[in-house]
Design brief:
Blueprint: E1 2-6, H1 9-26, E2 31-34, H2 41-52, E3 62-65, E4 67-69, H3 80-87, E5 99-100, H4 109-123, E6 128-131, E7 153-156, H5 159-165, E8 178-181, H6 184-189, E9 192-197, H7 203-211, E10 229-234, E11 244-245
Parallel strand pairs: 1-10, 1-11, 2-3, 2-6, 3-5, 6-9, 9-10
Antiparallel strand pairs: 4-8, 7-8
The protein binds 6-O-phosphono-beta-D-fructofuranose.
Function: Catalyzes the reversible isomerization-deamination of glucosamine 6-phosphate (GlcN6P) to form fructose 6-phosphate (Fru6P) and ammonium ion.
Domain Glucosamine/galactosamine-6-phosphate isomerase: 20-227
Enzyme class: hydrolase
Length: 246
Amino acid sequence: MNIVTFESTEELNEAGAGIVISLLQTKPDAVLGLATGGTPVGVYEHLVKAYRKGRLSFRKATSFNLDEYVGLPQEHPESYYSYMKQHLFDHVDLPVHQAHIPDGNAENPEEECRRYEAKLAEAKQIDLQILGLGHNGHIGFNEPDHTLVSGTHVVELKEETRKANARFFDSMDEVPTHAITMGVGMILKAKTILLIVRGEDKADVVHRALTGPIRTELPASLLQTHPNLVVMLDQAAAKHFQTQQA
Ligand SMILES: O=P(O)(O)OC[C@H]1O[C@](O)(CO)[C@@H](O)[C@@H]1O
């Protein structure tokens, strides 16, 4: 595990984007695992800037998003479909049919999970999985539980996750109760995982996840088993670590 701390969010975002840029420069047809939420927004901003400068192309790449809310219309500004268009897809040359997001409005969500899983199986392995971290230790929407699911599945969101994400909605009632998420199996199968964590409010959970016991009640702790995990923290999130400074 390689943990790096950054003095500023700007440097962290630039370094995060740098990993994607290097990958696409050396492997233009790479498979990217993409995350949403507040954490990776700045990384996507840097990627768009780099794309505009001609430093990278997504033309041959494929992407898979980690998750999507169930029942939130695609055109809702807080759907992860809208998020990805707003922050990345509308600004780069990734062909639409090469960008995959679970369909949270599928008539049969269970069937949609199987369809998504089949698409992931076709791609075989994600080259670089970008991950944020939930306050309760979730990765994707794999919530703390007695057991975790390996494949893509429908999950009931924990109250604390809905509360945390309510900041993006007008009211708590609008926050969906369920989501479709990639399972921990595919996440852990990625060649490289880039975990990005910012803010003092996540200092404790990221420290427990990466140094404490591996428990399904703290899904991010499973990342300790990954052979190629890069962790990027800002100083606030790194509070409990003694880390290598970027
Ligand atoms: O980056 P945020 O907004 O704190 O969210 C944490 C994580 O929870 C999710 O919203 C759920 O997948 C992720 O997108 C994100 O990585």
